[in-house]
Amino acid sequence: MQAGPIAVTRVPSRSIAHCEVTYVQRSPIDPDLARAQHRAYVDTLRDHGLTIIELPAEDALPDAVFVEDPVIVLDEVAVALHMGAPSRRPEVDSLVHAITPFRSVVRMDEHGTVDGGDVLRIGRTLYVGLSTRTDAAGLHALADVVGTCGHTVCPVRVHGCLHLKSACTWLGDRLLMNPDWIDTAPFADLPRLRVAEPWAADVLGLPDPAATGAPARIVMPASFPRTRDMLRHNGYDVRAVDVSELQKAEAGVTCMALVFAGSGNGATATATAGVTDTDMAG
Questions:
Q1: Residue 43 contacts by C-beta under 8 Å, 6 or more apart in sequence?
Q2: Which residues are catalytic?
Q3: What's the confidence (pLDDT) of residue 178?
Q4: CATH architecture of the domain with range 5-268
Q5: Cα distances (angstroms) measured from residue 143 to each of 100, 126, 168, 190
Q6: For 38-52, what is the mean pLDDT?
Q7: Domain residue spans of the chain
Q8: What is the largest CA-CA distance in the chain?
């Protein structure tokens, strides 16, 4: 089994202009430019030493490039989610197929919704955004699953943006946050940095492939230069990538890659109320 960090990605669909948008104004999207920018983004992950599993485009599913939302992957288990937007629910199956060689998978049923973009893991705690895509019933169902593996779930109210990670991401030693868009009380005990531009909080901290303990490399959109400079001033190794065409689809850099360690501990989660086992071939 692959031991180093893995990133599952998907080529943007030709229909990406028909994606779901909530907090950004719909505007024309050039699918060729979106694909070129996505290739450069994936190359940045590959250059850092991540093994890339690139899935083909799903042209019938405009949002399918956002692979982080349908599934979350922990060391012990992966959870196939029941997402908040009905148009996106068919995205789950092919991602489950890609993950099953690496993790056992449990699948949430339809009682409640969760998007992966609302799940921020810090240590053994999953901070889960209550947003337009994730509701309280989904949060409790997720807590039932991950609780069997020793993880706890902490709810966070989200207001003014699509997902929790639109407003807050983990840099490895502190939070990058737009406090105007979330309830900050659940993070009161954690060190933080405030973004210099409102949409700049969604950044991707890449794991160290060699496990040397070096600071995380941060990948972020090139469209937020003041936040980029602030992060560099605070000692972070920042790689800025142009994802401007994808941002028209409400993209963040976290949502376009499902990043996880290649080898988990092999634990199999027990199905609980609200969750059923899935036995799909790898």
A1: none
A2: 163, 255
A3: 98
A4: 5-stranded Propeller (3.75)
A5: 21, 9, 20, 22
A6: 96
A7: 5-268
A8: 48
